[in-house]
UniProtKB/TrEMBL annotation:
This is Site-specific recombinase XerD. Keywords: DNA-binding. GO terms for molecular function: DNA binding. Signal peptide: none annotated. InterPro entries: CB (IPR044068), DNA_brk_join_enz (IPR011010), Integrase_recombinase_N (IPR010998), Integrase_SAM-like_N (IPR004107). Residues 1-86 form the Core-binding (CB) domain. It comes from the Bacteria. One of its GO terms (biological process) is DNA integration.
Length: 167
């Protein structure tokens, strides 16, 4: 597997530099250490499941478990390499195709209300994805305007904005 993964990586054409770097990191840090000694034709879904179980128990350099989204990206890299091996006739099927991983959680934006701003100032508590609407900023004493109206849609998102409502 180690030889095939490196060969596959070197022959990839038209990849953005960041994609190539991500693939190389997955191959070097995760795929070769766990699967590198197994012959490509001998690789099984059980081998791959063991690798992901081991990866799920590892910690990042920040001491946190590897995120499910990272496991999905590692699997996508492995599947790309194995599907290339199928196309080249080196294996009959991709053994990673049936591997199930934990679903990644998706952070949802949270509007910065006065209460959230106070918690942020007090405890540095902040949501993963925050939408600063202008409402919380302008409601603070010493700022002009006290009421804001959405002009860009029903929910704050990219491209939406607030405008002051005349008092």
């Amino acid at each position: 597997m180690a030889r095939w993964l490196r060969c596959w990586l070197q022959t990839q054409q038209g990849l953005r530099p960041s994609t190539r770097e991500g693939y190389a990191d997955h191959v070097r840090l995760h795929l070769v250490p766990y699967l590198g000694r197994i012959e490509l034709a001998q690789l099984t879904a059980r081998d791959i499941s063991r690798m992901f179980a081991a990866l799920a128990g590892r910690r990042t350099r920040y001491g946190k478990p590897i995120a499910p989204s990272t496991l999905h990206r590692i699997r996508a890299t492995l599947r790309a390499a194995l599907n290339a091996a199928v196309r080249e006739g080196l294996i009959a099927a991709d053994p990673a195709r049936m591997i199930r991983l934990p679903a990644p959680s998706r952070p949802y934006p949270q509007v910065w209300t006065d209460r959230r701003v106070a918690a942020w100032r007090r405890e540095d508590e902040r949501p993963t994805v925050a939408v600063w609407t202008g409402y919380a900023a302008e409601r603070r004493p010493g700022h002009a305007g006290s009421t804001w109206t959405w002009t860009g849609g029903n929910w704050p998102s990219t491209g939406n904005w607030c405008t002051p409502t005349p008092d």
